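To: structure desk
From: M.T.
Subject: fold request, one chain
Message: Could you run this one when you get a chance? Sequence is below, nothing fancy, just the single chain.
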Amino acid sequence: MSVFENIHFDGHEQVVFCHDTKSGLKAIIAIHNTNRGPSLGGCRMWSYEHEADAVSDVLRLSRGMTYKNALADLPWGGGKSVIIGNAKTDKTPELMQALGRYVETLSGRYTIAEDVGTTPADMKEIAKNTTHVQGVEGEGYDPSPATAFGVFTGLKASVREKLGRSDVEGIRIAVQGLGHVGYDLASQLHDAGAELVVTDIDETAVTRARTELGAKAVGLNDIYAQDVDVFAPCALGAIINDDTIPQLRAKVIAGAANNQLAEDRHGEILHERGILYAPDYAINAGGVIHIYHEGPGYDKQKAFAHVGRIGDTITEIFARAKKDGISPNRAAARVAEDRFAA
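Reply: Done. Structure tokens follow.
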């Protein structure tokens, strides 16, 4: 199958296949849309079963970055890169340096950053051969607090829309996933007076949440059916699906996880069931917004003020959904498309 025949091809401007024999690099860079500016998106390293899977992934992810950057009101387009290989066993400094040479050949049309399977240390190796890189070890900042703050802001906007509340005092919220972002979000919700139900595969994180945040802990598969007002997915993607939707008792879904909907149709099902969904690529954009503000003139107050506008974007999406009589996930796409249209 050619790239053009792939179901995830969506008018992408450029797809680059990168191969370096000496380092063993096999990578793909996809640039989806640069109407708002040069593309930016992370680099994912994954053991794809088939190379065709890597092509589909980079096409899907680069398109997603166009929409995320537009909704975040950033002067960037959407791009992404994937490396075919095991991040634990195949990664070497030479491999990352080789990828940096390929990024440089694009003359600034694509700026690379970390993603699943890559780290700030990897970005430091890439930076040896290109200046078009963000999140370099020793030069950037941890984006997790910004991501968590953006989700907190968007969650409050969702609660205001669905429950008519301007705060989360006494609101029952189920948090799935207590990693850097999930735990930070849970802490902010606790400080704001919310009642928490949590789950995570890391028992240490769960114990900490119970001790520090007074959270109720439940099993991994029990989190969906909790009698709560808000469900905040902050771990895996594709967790809103045919199996989990019938279990949900929450009125709002607002969390940090990427690609929460297993399929677009699940957003329509949520809408039909009266469950308000805050589109993930809108609400979790705090990290990429923070990256935009990093640099010699970094101003934390200015950066977090920008992140705080995520709540306004979520409100705009809900208003568009009402106006057009469509689901929030479809409305988010329309708002983004308005912003990056040529």
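Reply (cont.): Residues 51-71 form the longest helix (21 residues). Let me know if you need anything else for the meeting.
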